[in-house]
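re: that chain from earlier
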Amino acid sequence: MNRVVLKNPSIIHSDGQVSEAKAIVVENGRIKAIDPDFWSADIEVDCTGKYVSPSFANLHTHSPMNIFKGFAEDVTIDRWFNELIWPYENRLVPEDAYHGSRVAIAEMQNNGVTVFADHYMFAEKIAKAALEMDMSLDIAPTLFSLDGSFHEGLIKTIELSETYRDEERVVVSLGPHSPYTCSMEDLRTLAEIQVKSGLKVHIHAAETKEQVIRSRIETGKTPFEFLSKSGVLLGRTIIAHGLYVEEGDLLFLNQNTTFAISPKTYYKLNMGFGNVPFLKNRIKIGIGTDGAASSNTLDPLEQARLLALMGKYLMKDSTSFPLREVWGYLMEGHRALEFDTGEIREGFSADLIIWDLDKPSTAVASDPLAAIIFSATSENIDTVISKGVFIKREGKLKHDVSEDISYLKKRMIELGESQGGETSLSY
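^ sequence. v structure.
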C-alpha cells in the first residue's frame, strides 16, 4: 500500500470552481477520499496556501521531434515541410525517437502534463520512454499512403494494440496522417478496422485554407467531407488542428470528435486561425502543443493562453474566451483520452498539479484561474503527480534526461551534415 495525503489544499476543479478541503487521500495511484475526517499517510504533503488541480493533457504532439527544436525557423510552411522536416525525418532511427521522447516527456512533466497523445513513427520507442518515465501515452503510429507503407503500418498498429492491451499507461490509436497524404481506399480500410476494433482515430485535417481549396479541386469535397465519406469520422476522433472547419462540415462530426488546438504553431507558420474561434460553442476543443519543431515548447498552458488572447482579438470581444471556458479546454483533453484523469473525485486516477501562486509572477492570486492562465509558468508548478507517482516534487523532476540531451546534440550535428534524405511526401 502507498498512501499519499495532500493536506489543506485549495482545489481547482475541472470546471474551474474552487473549494477547500482538509485533505486529498491518494492510495495506490487513485484518489481514495476527499475531505475525510481522519487519515493516515505514508507520505504527507502540506498544501497550505497552495492550489491542487487536475494535471494537464497534451492532446496532440510529436514527442520525438524535440530533436528538431529550433531547426526550422523563419521559413514558409511549404519549406518547413518539404525541405526541412520530411527529408530529415527520413534520416531518423529508432534511438532518435527514444531519446527525443524522453526529453519531450521531461519537458511536459515540468509543465504539468501527465497524459499525452502522440502521432509519430517509432511507436514502440515512444511507449518505452513513456513507461520508463511514469507517463500515460495514447500513441497513434503515423500512416501514409504516399510511400506505399499504409497497409503494413496498419497491421503493425493492430499488433501493437494487442501488445499493450493490458498496459494501463499505454493506449494505441489509429494514426492516418491526413486526407492529403492518405487515399480514400486506404482510409476506408482503416475505417472498417476502426469499427471492429473500437480504436480511436488521430488525424490531421484542414490545417490551412490552401488545404481546403486543394481538396475541393482534387476531390470535390472539403477535407472533413472526404474523411466522412471514408468512414473515419464515425467513431472517436482526435482532429489535429482542423482550423478551417466549415459550417457544413459540422454535419460530419459527432460528440466524440475533439479538436486539438495548438495556436503557437499557427502563429509561427502563418497558418491563420480559420473558423475555430467562431464555432467554439459547437465543437469540442482540447489543447495540444504540436511538436517542438513548430511550437518550440511543449506547454499546454502557453497554448491555452495564446488561444484565449487570439480568440478575444479575432472576435473583437474582450469578454469572449472567459477564464473558466479556457480552463475547460485544458481539461477537455482528458475526456478525449482513456486514463480516468482530469477530475479530482474519488475513484479517479491521481494525476495532479500542486500550484504555488505565491511567486512574484503570480502574486497576489486574487483569482487563481487568472493567475494560472495569464501569468503562471512552470516555476509555479511545485509538484506533479502521475497515477500517484511524484514525477516533479518541490520543483525538481524525478527523471534525469541529461544523457538523452547529450545524445540529441550529437545526433543533430550528424543529421545536419547529412543534408536530409529522400522522401515521397509532399505538402
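The two ends are 52 Å apart (CA to CA).
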